[in-house]
Each structure stands twice: as C-alpha cells, then as structure tokens.
Fold this sequence. Notes:
Blueprint: H1 4-33, H2 39-57, H3 61-79, H4 85-121
Helix pairs in contact: 1-2
Amino acid sequence: xxxxxxxxxxxxxxxxxxxxxxxxxxxxxxxxxxxxxxxxxxxxxxxxxxxxxxxxxxxxxxxxxxxxxxxxxxxxxxxxxxxxxxxxxxxxxxxxxxxxxxxxxxxxxxxxxxxxxxxxxx
Length: 122
C-alpha cells in the first residue's frame, strides 16, 4: 500500500508533468500565434520553453530515472570498440555487393514471372 509521502510525491510529480505539458503547449500555440515574427525570436522562445520543460521534467521521479539512464548509456557507449577504417570499408563493400546481388536476383525472378504471366495471358 502507498504511504502518504509516496502519494504526495506522485501528486507533485503529476503537477510537474502538467506544467511540462503546458509549457510545450504554450510553445506550439505561441509559435503559431507569432508566425509573423522573426524565425530567430520564435526559435529562441522555443529553446527557452524546451529548457524550462526539461528542467521541470528532471525534477520528477521519472525524469531523474531517465537522466540516470542517459548517464549509464553514455558510460556504455564509451566501452564500445569501434571498427577501424579498413574494417568499416570492407564491411560496407560486402553489404553493397550483397544488396546488389539480391537486387539482381529479384529483378531476374520478377522478369521471369512477368514473362511467364504475359505468355499465359497472351
């Protein structure tokens, strides 16, 4: 069963998410409303609203968990062993050759089936 502290935190989180959605809605409506204004001002306004929405979202439980996930993903990406340039070129060449081969086989099968159907139909 939920304790009182968990319920108050979730209700505050709900309010924070409502604020996030209101900020996003203000950005969308404001961008439409001020469509005659300079693109620079509209983009700056959207960036400011996006930053505010992000800051509010990061104050929620889900936002903190998402930020932790991003940090963990960054650590994992650092562990990735990226291919060397020759390996990359060789693998790309193999993929291109295989795709071309399959395309030719499919084109041949399509041509054969088309020829057979046109022969039957007359």
